[in-house]
Amino acid sequence: MFKRILVATHGTEGAKKAEAYAIGLAREFGSELHGLYVIHKGWSSLVGIEWLHPSRTRMEFYKYAETEFNRRAEEVLEALREHSTGIEVTISIRVGEPSEVIAEEARDKGIDLIVIGSSSNRRSEEYKAKVSLKKLVKLAPCPVLVANNDSSNFIKEVNYKELEGGDVEFSGANKISLKSSGFPTT
Known about the structure:
This protein is α/β, with parallel strands linked by helices. It has five helices and seven strands.
């Protein structure tokens, strides 16, 4: 049914739920799994008022931040790969607007299903990037599955009103490890 599944992850609770669903589906259907970590293009605006900082300090901060974002992305994607034993896994780290990057990656890789996590009620200590669900659904070349944080639901039911302003939040501060690599039953 699904030959290629893309899971967008940042290592958060919602993203780990999406990883579990994507891994389970990949096992169930013998699919390839593509892990994508999107670094929001707006990360560089975290510096603040640029005229207050000397150019050298700004450049050092940019280099440090870029290194840390990439380190975190590699860490999260490596954990996904480790939990996906027996599944062909490819990974990508991209910078851009999350909805656009996810849809573009799905188109470029010939993806049959996109799996993303839903927003968490917990506040992240790290920079957050939001995926506009409405925008992603419009741009996506394939179905989008939203993995709900509520363990009593397998697939989040989304109605049109929720899509109107619905954002799915991604951030990178979760410390919970992926406990299930099989198809979710709850």
